[in-house]
Specification:
With 189 residues, the protein is of the alpha+beta class. Helices cover 27% and strands 40% of the residues. The chain has five helices and ten strands, in the order H-E-E-H-E-E-E-E-H-E-E-H-H-E-E. The strands form two sheets. Strands 3, 4, 5, 6, 7, 8, 9 and 10 form an eight-stranded antiparallel sheet that branches. Strands 1-2 form a two-stranded antiparallel sheet. The longest helix has 14 residues.
Length: 189
């Protein structure tokens, strides 16, 4: 499939730590973005990213249909301890779920805009792949974590049409303030 070929190309563009480069990022919907990216110490950057992922519980999920029509959804989430998987819940009859089944490449936005002035906001773009959770026990454990962190979603989560989404994280792009960017590919860590 086309999106798997693009991901392979993007994964080969790893830039060594400590250098400035202009990065080109292709979103799941095919949008091209360029930015000056500083490659920092992987450990420092990963720790900073994980702290923000763990501190938040709301993100914007970006999916795209088979014919590349983008769709964004505000989502509650929890992450595994390593922040390599991010879990959400939706219903099977939604556009986002249909998009995930047809095109599993996603992007998430997690940010700190409610905590800082605009010039100090941190934002993480997460690139990843949707995967179904086949293990019933894991689905139950993740569902319990979602209920614990987001009790207001109890009826939504317990609905028979609900399905837990697992996003396998491929990379993080941290924007620190207005101009500082740090890219981490989990396949390189």
């Amino acid at each position: 499939k086309k999106y798997h070929q693009e991901r392979t190309l993007a994964q080969t563009l790893f830039i060594p730590p400590g250098t400035y480069n202009y990065g080109i990022i292709i979103s799941p919907a095919g949008f091209i973005m360029a930015n000056k990216i500083k490659m920092m110490s992987t450990t420092f950057t990963v720790d900073k990213i994980k702290a923000l992922v763990r501190a938040k519980g709301i993100c914007v999920l970006s999916t795209a249909s088979d014919d590349a029509v983008p769709h964004c959804s505000l989502m509650a989430y929890v992450a595994n301890n390593a922040c390599t998987e991010i879990y959400m819940v939706t219903h099977r009859a939604t556009r986002k779920y249909k998009n995930l089944l047809g095109n599993p490449v996603i992007s998430l936005l997690i940010d700190s805009r409610e905590n800082y002035p605009r010039e100090q906001v941190q934002a993480i773009t997460v690139s990843g792949i949707y995967q179904a959770i086949g293990n019933r026990r894991k689905r139950e454990e993740v569902g319990a974590r979602l209920l614990q962190q987001h009790p207001h979603l109890k009826d939504f989560i317990l609905n028979p049409d609900a399905v837990i989404i697992c996003i396998k994280v491929d990379s993080f792009l941290l924007l620190n303030g207005l101009t500082e960017s740090y890219f981490i590919s989990l396949s390189k860590v």
